[in-house]
Amino acid sequence: MAGVVVCHGSAAVRERLVVTSIGVPSLAPVRAAATADELVALARRIAPTVVLLDAHLPGAGPAEAIRRLRAVAPAAAVVLLAGPEDGEALDRALALGARGFLAPDVGRAELAAVAAHVQASPAASAAGAPAPAAPAGPHAVPSLQEAAPSRVEAPVGARPADGTPVLTKREIEVLVGMSHGRSNAQIGQELFLSEDTVKTHARRLFRKLGAADRAQAVAIGLRRGIID
Length: 228
Known about the structure:
Layout: E1 4-7, H1 11-22, E2 30-33, H2 36-45, E3 50-54, H3 61-72, E4 77-81, H4 87-95, E5 100-102, H5 108-120, H6 169-179, H7 184-191, H8 195-209, H9 214-223
Parallel strand pairs: 1-2, 1-3, 3-4, 4-5
Helix pairs in contact: 2-3, 6-7, 6-8, 6-9, 7-8, 8-9
């Protein structure tokens, strides 16, 4: 590991995440940045393995921060620090190659899971292209929820010409778990996601499918050939 950079606009959140990350030996060294400029400067000196990035980063914003980071550290695994209400920011980040998202109050165990997954599944090639999709740590994006998408993830609500809802790879995995009768907690264990992250994916796929609950979502998924 080349360490983790915690990039967050809130000093309190940043400091808490630094302390939490220090408790995960595989994430050492731990560095902190308050802005995109500071993040890029740190990455130029030593390219980080993981970047925990504020979904509400002031100034340049998270999307621009990812673009600039990619120019100096293309293999860094970016994990957005976001909540369920940050779907739009998450979609943009995923489209730029982010591995997923974590809640800002993420704990040590989840960070350790993220580190283990990143070590086992590098996020990008030397050229900076996203690697094939693979499950990631908790909260992904774990969330590391939407680990290394193999394609640009469709925006929430997006539909192709035939009107079939487009689900992300992770949403399909969650839907498959539902079709097997698994609980959110069980799905999270299988996908290395927190239960809250699974719930977030469930809400998003319900909205895309126009489903009121799990049973209806599974029925729609089977009827439209989204799952087998």
